[in-house]
Amino acid sequence: MSTQPTEITAEAPPRLPWGALLLLSGAAFATVTTELLPASMLLQLSDGLDITPATAGGLVGAWALTIAVASVPLTRLTARVPRRRLFTLILLLLALATTGTALAPSYGWALTSRITAAAAHGLFWSLLVPTVATLVPPARTGRAVSVVLAGPAMASIIGIPLGATIGVSLGWRVSFGALAALLALAALGIRSLPLTDAPRPAVRQEGRDPALWTVLGVALAGGLVITGHFLLYTYIAPLLKQFGGYDNATSGILLFVFGVAGVVGTLGAGSLSDRFPRQALSWVSAAFAGSAASLLLLDLHLAVAVVVIAGWGVLIGLLPPVFQMHLLRIASPGREAASGAIGITVLNLGIATGATLGGAVLDNWQARALPAVAAAVIAAATFGLVVNGLRGRSATGEKSGAEHTDVVREGDDTASTGAQDPSVAEA
After folding, report:
1. Whether 376 contacts 357, CB under 8 Å
2. Which value, in Å, is the radius of gyration of the alpha carbons in the chain?
3. What confidence tens digit (pLDDT) does each residue in 351-406 have?
4. How far is CA 117 from the centre of its chain?
5. What pTM, to 2 d.p., does this model score?
6. Which CATH number characterizes residue 223's domain?
7. Distance from C-alpha of 251 to C-alpha of 316, rounded to nearest angstrom
8. Among the three residues 163, 197, 231, which one is the final residue of a domain in this structure?
């Protein structure tokens, strides 16, 4: 009697829903282009609205402040709205508010429309990553998020230059009008996505959130990394010209290298986050501190500048997806959107803080001091993440050891695999 061997076939991993991910990526591209475009068109806006460039800069500051204030309350307020309907309404509101900016007869009108758009933008980004996570299995979430966040990365090398070019040749109102049309198209496309029609009813969202302090700690660390980044990036022009000694043409090439490297980093973030869910954020933060310090070498040679600028670009491409995926994984079940809103809030506070701190550094110590201060800020964030990670690993190990003892006592060999997932337990 012969025994037939049992054929074991490895199950192929499920394919990513490329259509849905690319549509969400396109919508994210449009929202980030809408966010950043005024910074590249301040002179045109000030001339068109008959205000000073400094006053026009209020359109940028008001956007970040609105997101920081409104994201968490709006996320809580809309928690039970079906996601497909909510995303459609958000993008339509963004389109309408951007149309208001394009037609604005005065600064007050433009400011009101930008504040309205910023509130919708903050809600969109609070929900985006948690929603992407519902479209794919957990093991593929990081890759899916990196595909979606490639859209915003492309905004810096395609959307903003194209919008600014249109603004110079046809007028800034045409640029905002074109963005409004793109947002409206994205809203129509969102209606076809297989999004969850309602929040999961089995999860209670009332009461104390056991993961709240962990989420806040990680969010604060991420906010410090962004503070260090924008301490540098807000003043990249004087950094390259005054410290590096590069002319406008060379600075433009370096900025292009930075943008392309950012896209590369974003595309690689998913694999890094999926493969090393606990360590990825600490690793990126530590590398970011080293990258900031390496900018002290900008003035040595153009080849050195290309390398350090490219490294910086890769890391800012890695950071947002890895950071948001980490928050998603440590959030309590049913509170993923609230965790995302906290992340968006601290990131925007980091942007404002970095710009303010960088200005003070520039006034007191000139551009050459920016890399050192940024590296110190990011190193502090890295230290916090490492300490938090060690505490989480210790707690997870103790729990797993207790569970293993119970398993041995009961004689259940298979139950030993039921320990808590460390990627969720550890911040």
Report:
1. no
2. 23
3. 878 877 887 887 788 888 889 999 999 999 999 888 766 655 544 443 444 333 33
4. 18
5. 0.70
6. 1.20.1250.20
7. 18
8. 197
